[in-house]
Amino acid sequence: MRVVGLTGGIATGKSTFAALLRARGVPVLDADALARAAVAPGTPALAEIARAFGAEVLAADGTLDRRKVAARVFADPAARRRLEAITHPAVRAAMRAETARLEAAGQALVLYDTPLLYEVGLDRELDAVAVVYAPREEQRARLAARDGLGPAEADARLAAQLDIEEKARRADFVVDNTGATAALGEKADRLLADLRAGRGRRLPNAPPLRY
Fold first, then answer.
1. What pLDDT sits at residue 33?
2. pLDDT for 29-47, tens place per residue?
3. CA distances in angstroms from 204 to 80, 124, 170, 207, listed in the order given
4. What superfamily would CATH give domain 2-27+107-210?
5. What is the spatial distance between Cα 165 and Cα 169, in angstroms, rounded to a whole number?
6. Lower CB count within 10 Å: N or C terminus of the chain?
């Protein structure tokens, strides 16, 4: 079974593209869903987060208050690294368990949807990487429209991830989502056709395949 990473930057349209792939019958593992399960009440990761950041990051029902944690880590790179040191190994273990289950079920291709693929070095463990791309100016505009963020807040969110141009440079496949998203369905078909035909890692010094 081939496991292909799907990543992008905040507000590049990665989630929309992942939904299109799922609609075409391809399993797409959601790193955010795995992350929520990894810090559910009773998990070792949640207990470690509470020890590291204090009980105030827990909601009244014992779940992680993700908004409080996000407010802490987006403003403090050291705090973000502390949080990632707890959550990333737990999420990676969950991803490996789920891909093993899908392989045992006979799946030939699985996409792993994760925003921090390059940031945590996961690209080295995958068969190829597809990046959903939109230029930084468009990311900032979409964030402002979607989340009501001001310029400084939007830039802080963007700075928490590897620059989208660098992600596109490293990728094996780049799905351009500049402007309207109407063409994404056709691009999903083309990417899947190439993956099913055996395309994967690009040769050294070769450019990524673009859609």
1. 93
2. 999 999 999 999 999 999 9
3. 33, 14, 11, 9
4. P-loop containing nucleotide triphosphate hydrolases (3.40.50.300)
5. 6
6. N
Where do runs of H (alpha helix) occur along the chain?
Answer: 14-23, 31-38, 44-53, 66-74, 77-104, 136-147, 151-159, 164-170, 184-196
Residue with tokens 């795995």: 34
Q: Compute the distance between CA of residue 141 and CA of residue 149 in angstroms, rounded to an integer.
A: 9
Compute the radius of gyration of the chain from its Cα atoms: 18
**How would residue 65 be classed by pLDDT, with cut points 50, 70 and 90?**
very high
What's the distance, CA 52 to chain centroid? 24
Q: Is the pLDDT of residue 3 over 90?
A: yes
User: Any idea where the domains of the chain sit in the sequence?
Assistant: 2-27+107-210, 34-91
pLDDT exceeding 70 applies to what percent of the chain?
Answer: 100
pTM of the shown model: 0.85
Q: What is the DSSP letter of 175?
A: E
pLDDT of 97 reads: 92
Say which residue the tokens 């990728």 belong to: 171
Query: How would you list the strands of the sheet with 173-176, edge to edge?
Result: 28-30, 109-113, 2-8, 128-133, 173-176, 209-210
